[in-house]
């Protein structure tokens, strides 16, 4: 199985491959869903792997993929090296989320 997404342009105005990012984040979630419930889960990556990890972390915080489907994995840690946050222009306009309620 091939996972990945298109990177047309890294500028803030470049197109987003939300469908490809959702597929990558879904693959990560599927891998993590087999882990025991009593452990903390984390993801990390380098370059495009970092982008996938950061996008997965964003989906985890929001509780949904970019297409609106529920993201059911609770991530405790995300590490990204030499990467970027795909769809960042959309994330910046989301309401503030507080985990301290």
Automatic annotation (TrEMBL):
<dbReference type="InterPro" id="IPR029058">
    <property type="entry name" value="AB_hydrolase_fold"/>
</dbReference>
<protein>
    <recommendedName>
        <fullName>Lysophospholipase</fullName>
    </recommendedName>
</protein>
């Amino acid at each position: 199985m091939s996972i990945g997404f298109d990177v047309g342009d890294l500028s803030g105005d470049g197109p987003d491959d939300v469908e490809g990012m959702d597929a990558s984040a879904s693959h990560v979630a599927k891998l993590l869903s087999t882990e025991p419930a009593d452990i903390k889960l984390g993801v990390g990556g380098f370059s495009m792997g970092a982008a996938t990890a950061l996008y997965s972390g964003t989906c985890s915080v929001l509780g949904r993929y970019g297409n609106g489907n529920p993201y059911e994995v609770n991530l405790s840690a995300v590490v990204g090296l030499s990467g970027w946050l795909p769809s960042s222009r959309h994330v910046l306009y989301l309401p503030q989320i507080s985990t301290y309620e």
